[in-house]
């Protein structure tokens, strides 16, 4: 969804509005529900929901069982390893984009007719020292100011890290309390984030979704496998459909359609002044969808199918790689015919390169998706294990744990069991 949203922004940005104008009828992909095919903002909210869920599910389970020592130990280990699990893959993805930029792979990007792609252009540095300095700057600023000059889509990564630490802090403060008290804390935190949502980085995007993710982890530990029989059958379906409708709140010009204009007026009345109400609808929509899925047996069955498991497994490398491939491989395919015979004005000055025909575009995008997911599979196969080994080595050094050839922590055991135990120690 994020990739399709960025492709929409690059080539058909007018689809982000609910209609061409207040007096014109909408196209198919501007309608509620169908517009989710070209809008990825609610998927970013889902990333934060999942971050809250996977980082809280273990500590909450141990707290409910009374195993508080194990809960505190788990929080300590996860908090230490989490930074590496986010920073290392992002570091490699930035290096990949840096390499493309400094081998002039983004050269064509500067001259295309797509504003979004053109804004992502980065030129080749004049010297090797300047190139390495720009790499260091980009790697550091991704986590300090939230901007990577080689890949602007990485602006969310430092928020994911902050969100994880928000989970660990909340878990640390609530391990010893009752589940009822912890739920009360979640409600108060959600209200705090709602009222502090000045801009997209404080409440509406990060905080609200992180809290809902933790609340979902609480529900998981409360209901276990019986969750799908808690609500009457129609209610989860209604929740999913309602969430999808809310997630479709348009990114641009909500006043072009009555349904989105009414949604905008409602949210303006419920939120603090000058907030980005789009992020509120994204967050509410994603939260409602995931709650419906949690209580729905059929939705769970679909989303645990091999296809969706594959999509989930490669989702992070897809997110890290897609912008670099859009600015290189996809741009080459879409604009190469025009680049071979650049358009010029009457004065002989070069004009923006023009994209190919509709059929040409569809073929180029299909090839782009194939390359993207093949690279993501290779990433999962080679890069993820490398990052995991580095993080494991660093945490073992930090804990002064010397791995033994006979098993983990010096305890003898079969190799297959040692491997499972070692993998289970990694945070999700």
Automatic annotation (TrEMBL):
Residues 1-336 form the Acyltransferase domain. It holds the Pfam family Acyl_transf_3. GO terms for molecular function: acyltransferase activity, transferring groups other than amino-acyl groups. It comes from the Eukaryota. The keyword Transmembrane helix applies. The chain crosses the membrane at residues 33-54, 86-106, 155-177, 189-217, 229-249, 319-338, 359-380. Keywords: Membrane, Transmembrane, Transmembrane helix. InterPro entries: Acyl_transf_3_dom (IPR002656), Acyltransferase_3 (IPR050879). This is Acyltransferase 3 domain-containing protein. It comes from Lepidopterella palustris CBS 459.81.
């Amino acid at each position: 969804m994020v990739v399709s949203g960025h492709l929409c922004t690059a080539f058909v940005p007018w689809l982000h509005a609910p209609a061409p104008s207040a007096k014109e009828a909408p196209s198919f992909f501007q309608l509620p529900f169908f517009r989710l095919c070209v809008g990825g903002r609610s998927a970013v909210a889902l990333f934060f929901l999942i971050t809250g869920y996977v980082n809280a599910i273990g500590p909450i389970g141990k707290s409910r069982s009374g195993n508080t020592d194990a809960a505190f130990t788990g929080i300590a280990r996860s908090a230490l390893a989490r930074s590496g699990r986010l920073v290392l893959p992002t570091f490699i993805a930035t290096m990949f984009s840096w390499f493309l930029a400094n081998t002039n792979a983004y050269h064509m990007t500067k001259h295309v007719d797509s504003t979004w792609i053109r804004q992502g252009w980065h030129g080749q540095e004049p010297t090797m020292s300047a190139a390495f300095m720009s790499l260091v700057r980009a790697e550091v600023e991704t986590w300090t100011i939230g901007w990577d000059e080689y890949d602007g889509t990485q602006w969310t990564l430092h928020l994911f890290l902050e969100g994880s630490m928000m989970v660990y802090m909340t878990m640390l403060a609530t391990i010893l309390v009752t589940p009822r008290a912890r739920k009360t804390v979640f409600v108060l935190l959600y209200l705090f984030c709602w009222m502090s949502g000045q801009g997209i980085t404080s409440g509406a995007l990060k905080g609200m979704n992180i809290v809902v993710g933790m609340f979902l982890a609480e529900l998981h530990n409360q209901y276990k496998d019986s969750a799908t029989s808690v609500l009457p059958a129609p209610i989860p379906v209604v929740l999913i459909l309602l969430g999808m409708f809310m997630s479709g709140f348009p990114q641009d010009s909500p006043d072009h359609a009555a349904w989105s204009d009414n949604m905008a007026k409602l949210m303006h009345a419920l939120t603090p002044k000058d907030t980005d109400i789009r992020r509120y609808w994204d967050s509410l929509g994603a939260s409602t969808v995931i709650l419906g899925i949690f209580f729905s047996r059929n939705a769970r069955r679909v989303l645990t199918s091999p296809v969706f498991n594959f999509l989930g497994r490669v989702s992070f490398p897809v997110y890290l790689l897609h912008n670099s491939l859009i600015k290189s491989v996809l741009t080459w395919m879409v604009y190469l015919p025009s680049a071979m015979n650049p358009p010029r004005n009457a004065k002989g000055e070069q004009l923006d390169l023009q994209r190919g025909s509709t059929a040409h575009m569809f073929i180029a995008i299909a090839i782009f998706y194939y390359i993207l997911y093949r690279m993501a599979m290779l990433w999962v196969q080679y890069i993820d294990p490398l990052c995991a080994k580095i993080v494991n080595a660093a945490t073992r050094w930090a804990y002064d744990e010397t791995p033994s050839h006979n098993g983990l922590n010096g305890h003898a055991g079969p190799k297959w069991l040692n491997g499972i135990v070692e993998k289970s120690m990694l945070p999700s």
